[in-house]
Amino acid sequence: MSKLLVRASSLAAVNSEPREKSPLQHYNEAVEMAKALEAEIAGMRDGLKSKETKKLKLAQAVEKAKALESEKDGIFISKTAQKKIKEIFVNTEYRRYRETENKYVKKGRIGEEDGITMLSLFDRRMYRKNDIRLSNEYITGECDIYLGESIENAEETVDIKCSWDVFTFFDVKDDELNDDYFGQGQGYMWLTKAKKHTVAYVLINTPKEQINAELYKESFKWRKSEIPLWRQLQIVSNMIYDEETFKLYCEENNLSPVRSREDDTEEGELLYKQALAVYLDFVEIPFNKRVHKISFDFDEEYIEKSKVNIEKARKWLLSKGYTLSNKAEESSDV
């Protein structure tokens, strides 16, 4: 199973601690239960109904211990690690990949270059997208950006995370870095020899195709699929963060509030005023408020733990009958 490489983005899953008890723990509990029942029974008078009940429980505990004895020394990894290592096996052996893209992931994929550009402007330093994948005997990964003389001998790695909207962006500013991103960063540093990793959250304007998709989805909530202009402007303003782009999108898509003959009616006048109020109420989010960075250092202990857990995961796969064919190559996905 030496060919099976864990993605850097999956390190946290492989390192996850089991929430359930191991076969060894269940075995030890059964043994302890049997010992406790034996002690109780030894101190009870013959003929007591309760003694017979205890004897029955003792027999059950002994039977359970015997059933668990053959499993107690087996390889035990968390359910999360089991699911992830099986997924990587399928990726590697059969070139099949789980469909995981949603609108949040899609924005990150489409907007990655915009995110890198935003970070470059924010840091006043030109960054370029890295397209070199590295692997060692345990993991594989491709960081977004690296700093240093080469990808194999970097000083720092950087991962761009494009927030879906202003709300998810501000949420991460007060949240602790999640385990997946921490493990991913440790993996990139392991591969590149970097000593520092940065997760850069960026609030870029939502790509036009996704704004259009949100407007289309909204149309099903309205009679005859006619979304009032004020509601369209609300949606657009929640997805664009600078005034120039907001006004340009509105102009290109006929969303700028303009009086028409229909506005001569009382209802038309009200709708016009509502749309104009939303349009004029647009507040630009300053560029320097749209980047949030979290940095951390290389953790040697985490890497050693990862090596142990990857080996355990490989052995667990083998114990379940999963073996790579000779044709299988290293997994090529992130």
What does this structure look like?
There is one protein chain. The chain has helices spanning 11-14, 23-42, 49-69, 79-94, 103-110, 112-123, 166-174, 179-192, 208-219, 229-237, 243-252, 266-280, 300-319, and strands at residues 6-7, 134-135, 139-141, 145-150, 153-162, 196-202, 291-297. The protein is an alpha/beta fold. It folds into three domains: 6-94, no CATH class; 103-203 and 300-317, Alpha-Beta Complex (Lambda Exonuclease, Chain A); 208-280, no CATH class. The strands form two sheets. A four-stranded mixed sheet has the order 4-5-6-7. A three-stranded mixed sheet has the order 1-3-2, covered by helices on one side. Helix 2 (23-42) runs antiparallel to helix 3. The radius of gyration is 29 Å and the shape is extended. The model is unreliable at 330-334 (pLDDT under 50).
Give the topology.
Blueprint: E1 6-7, H1 11-14, H2 23-42, H3 49-69, H4 79-94, H5 103-110, H6 112-123, E2 134-135, E3 139-141, E4 145-150, E5 153-162, H7 166-174, H8 179-192, E6 196-202, H9 208-219, H10 229-237, H11 243-252, H12 266-280, E7 291-297, H13 300-319
Parallel strand pairs: 1-3, 5-6
Antiparallel strand pairs: 2-3, 4-5, 6-7
Structural class, from secondary structure content?
A: alpha/beta
CATH class categorisation of the largest domain: Alpha Beta
Low-confidence stretches: 330-334
- How much strand? 5-15%
Helical element count?
Answer: 13
Which fold name corresponds to the CATH topology of the largest domain? Lambda Exonuclease, Chain A
Task: Compute the CA-based radius of gyration.
Answer: 29 Å
Which sequence of strands runs across the widest sheet?
4-5-6-7
Count of folded domains:
3
Q: Summarize the main sheet.
A: 4 strands, mixed
* Number of extended strands: 7
- What is the CATH architecture descriptor of the largest domain? Alpha-Beta Complex
Termini separation comes to 19 Å
Oligomer: single chain
Residues in helices, as a percent range? 40-55%
Write the H/E string, N to C: EHHHHHHEEEEHHEHHHHEH
Q: What does the average pLDDT come to? A: 90
